[in-house]
UniProtKB/TrEMBL annotation:
Family as reported in the entry's similarity comment: Belongs to the UPF0382 family.
Main location: membrane
Residue spans crossing the bilayer: 69-88, 100-124
GO cellular component: plasma membrane
Identification of the protein by name: DUF423 domain-containing protein
Keyword annotations from UniProtKB, A to Z: Membrane, Transmembrane, Transmembrane helix
Subcellular location: Membrane
Pfam families associated with the record: DUF423
Species for this entry: Flavobacterium hydrophilum
């Protein structure tokens, strides 16, 4: 499981850098400032959670079940939160109006928050 988490974290990190550069260079001339700021938010949260996955994979005291739960929450959260932000902010570029998926952004955010909660709860339950 640790290998899978690290691979996913590396992919998230790599894509965050690629998308951040794409936003800073290619999209800067196309998007309005508010859209660019939102796009950067998606990139930032994706990178935060790449680091979070690296951290979680390094914690030997976490059970396999806990690792799987956190991994799935982060995977779903990043895809829904950052992914929907990327689609919503680039509608001018794609000419596709993704408004219909706007409701998944907060769901993705909730999944990310819950992943952190699972980690917190796990350590509260552990005896020191």
């Amino acid at each position: 499981m640790e290998r899978k988490i690290i691979i996913t974290a590396a992919i998230f990190g790599m894509l965050a850098i690629i998308l951040g550069a794409f936003g800073a260079h290619a999209l800067k001339a196309i998007l309005i400032p508010e859209q660019l700021t939102s796009f950067e938010t998606g990139v930032r949260y994706q990178m935060y959670h790449a680091f979070f996955l690296f951290f979680v994979a390094s914690r030997k005291e976490l059970s396999l079940k806990t690792l799987k739960v956190i991994y799935n929450l982060v995977l779903g959260g990043v895809l829904l939160f950052s992914g929907s932000i990327f689609l919503l902010t680039t509608k001018n570029v794609t000419t596709i109006d993704f408004k219909i998926i706007g409701f998944v952004t907060p769901i993705g955010g909730f999944l990310l928050i819950f992943a952190w909660f699972v980690l917190l709860a796990t350590f509260f339950k552990k005896k020191s």
